[in-house]
Amino acid sequence: MSRLRGTRFGAQGRPVTGRLAPTPSGYLHLGNARSFLLAWLWARHEGGHVIMRVEDIDRPRCKHELREAALEDLAWLGLGWDEGPRAGDPPGEYDQHTRFELYRQGLNELIEGGHAYPCVCSRKDIEKASSAPHGEEGAVYPGTCRDRWDSWDQAKQESGVEPAWRFRWEGDFENFHDECYGTVGLRPAGFGDFVLWRRDDLPSYQLAVTVDDALQGVTQVLRGRDLLTSTARQLALYRALGLVAPEHWAHVPFIQDAKGRRMAKRDGDFALARLRESGVAPERVIGMLAFSAGLMERPGLMTPAELVGEFRPDRLGGEDFVVTEEHLAWLHGK
Predict the structure, then answer these.
(1) Rounded CA gap, 189 and 173, in Å?
(2) Among 22, 37, 152, 208, which has the highest number of CB atoms less than 10 A from its own CB?
(3) Pick from 251, 286, 256, 283: nearest CA to 270
């Protein structure tokens, strides 16, 4: 049994639990807000619990003022949560950068179980490797270091660089059900062994999220469709660590700008903070997001609480939504 199971927040009884997990590396935009709204609605529709978790493991890019802005923005939208920090609270146990020892414990268990190995390959090395196949995410790690070193110390001494740790991902297929995409089957060989602990001594997203969702009792995960393949990786980690995985998954389409580009945190015009400053009512934002997700036939003023009864994952579909000038005009009350 994994030693992590005895840690606080162990999932006993598994009540319905969802989570909001902003990354404070930029201001939240409409695309982020829609994913958080849908995650909140899913949990509340099932009579469940909502956790706020700040995913700030990438310390060079994450800023305290952006953490504050994210917490303020989500509260402004009416997405209340049952556990986790509010704006003005100091960092604590729901901020990932305070939980590195838990992630290190998970890494050590994977090492002891033979599921992890040291790797000195850079991205450039992988791209240049003649044996590296290419998949939908680009160059696939060809396993150069899989059986190359006996220990992390040996890898460092002989290579002269700080090694990362990779997961030894084995098996024919990783299968799961997604509420938006149905049955999904991914072959590990098509994606390659993935990083667990980075060369700059930071845990990977895959490891941190797996440990946190398990220890915080998360039963449903809703996030953007770009993370669909992450679910396969994380299910493999749950199994290797002996942890209980979330029972339900949903990967939702994106919101795109008028040029068909996925919204990003650099798009200031779509930032929630800017919409707030310009006087846009949160009910307009919620109404636009609900319309974009197929929960309303046309945009209208709405609160999250009013949408709880309308939510069903199977209504979300798999098509991206393009925000037009007309949509923006309505959003600003024009």
Answers:
(1) 9
(2) 37
(3) 256
Quote the CA–CA distance of 34 and 234 in Å, as a whole number. Answer: 23
Distance CA 210, CA 106 (A): 9
In angstroms, the CA 92 to CA 253 distance is: 32
Q: Give the count of domains, the chain.
A: 2
End-of-domain residue from the set 149, 173, 205: 205
pLDDT at 58: 92
Task: Give pLDDT, residue 137.
Answer: 64
241/7 Cα distance (integer angstroms): 13
Predicted confidence at residue 268, as pLDDT, reads 66
Q: How many beta carbons lie within 10 A of that of residue 283, not counting itself?
A: 16
**Residue 151 structural domain:** 102-205
Please tell me whether residues 225 and 199 are part of one structural domain: no
> 242 and 152 in one domain?
no
pLDDT digits (tens, 9 = 90+) for 234-267: 999 999 999 999 999 999 999 987 777 776 665 5
Q: Are residues 236 and 321 in the same domain?
A: yes
Asked whether residue 260 is domain-assigned, the answer is yes
Final residue before a domain boundary, out of 157, 179, 205: 205
* pTM, rounded to two decimals: 0.92
22 and 119 share one domain: no
CB atoms within 10 A of CB 229: 19
**Residues 184, 82 within the same domain:** no
- What pLDDT sits at residue 107? 98
Full DSSP string of 53-112? -B----TTT--HHHHHHHHHHHHHHT---SBS--TTPPP-TTBGGG-HHHHHHHHHHHHH
**Short-list 21, 46, 47, 45, CA closest to 35:** 21
Listed in sequence order, the residues at least 6 apart from 7 whose beta carbon sits closer than 8 Å to its beta carbon are 102, 215
Strand, coil or helix: 120: coil
**List of the chain residues with pLDDT < 70:** 1-3, 5-13, 130-137, 263-268
Taking only the tens place, the pLDDT of each residue in 52-83 is: 999 999 989 999 999 999 999 999 999 999 99
